[in-house]
Known about the structure:
Strand 7, helix 6 (223-233) and strand 8 form a beta-alpha-beta unit. It is built from six helices and eight strands, in the order ααβαββββαβαβαβ. It folds into two domains: 1-36, no CATH class; 39-243, Rossmann fold, CATH 3.40.50. The protein is of the alpha/beta class. Helix content is 25%, strand content 20%. It has helices at residues 6-15, 26-35, 69-77, 171-177, 190-203, 223-233, and strands at 44-49, 82-88, 109-112, 115-118, 142-148, 182-188, 207-216, 237-239. The structure holds pyrazine-2-carboxylic acid and zinc ion. Pyrazine-2-carboxylic acid is lined by residues 50, 55, 88, 120, 157, 188-189, 192-193.
Amino acid sequence: MKLLPRRQFIRNAALTGVSLGLGTSAIWSTNLWAANKLKPSANAALIAVDVQNCFVSSGTLPVPKGEEVVPIINALGRVFDNVVITQDWHTAGHASFASSHVGKKPFETTQLSYGQQVLWPDHCVQGTQDAELHSDLKLPKAQVVIRKGYNPQVDSYSAFKEADRKSTTGLAAYLQARGIDTVYVAGLATDFCVAWTALDARALGFETLVIEDACRAIDLNGSLAAAWKEMTAKGVKRIQSSDLI
Ligand code: VGL
Ligand code: ZN
């Protein structure tokens, strides 16, 4: 008999409980199944990144299939003691909008004081319906909402630090003050706000996991592959929602 790795064995055993003569107990298999899952500790937080109207199909900066993350993130929210929500929250006429730069079109780049900036369609403007959290997002345990990108001259993909790499949103201090040492990141978009949030979390010393199928990407000029390459190189772990739920 070929030996299966322990994890695989437990998974198979749970699926074939009856044939092993251990009864038809759905409970039994559920328990074993549960043993096969990662259980987020009390010191872990789920960060649900930018699940907002602007980033789904009907929004101003639609991420392909962005709405598909909503039910997955809702289910994930139930297995965490700590949940953080982020919201892209730009001023009208924000420096990251192509419309703020004469002769520039969305998805081109420009040079800002802190370096190169991708220019986006106007999106997630403070106080608009477009900037609201998706109405199907149900994260009743969420304890804090971090808004970012509200400095008119500086973008912020990361939930921790703005694009000038100096100004902080306060999220790291908040998490540290609450004894949180591990973050699981999900949301929109994988290759921008999720990746920057995860990379900053890791650099700040948090154990960091990105839940891949609970994210969707923009994928601009290979940005998705580049984001995973960098996240992997920096020690961000790549997991699936099925590892947790
Ligand atoms: C995002 C581009 C511009 C994101 C936000 O949430 O990934 N992407 N603003
Ligand atoms: Zn934005």
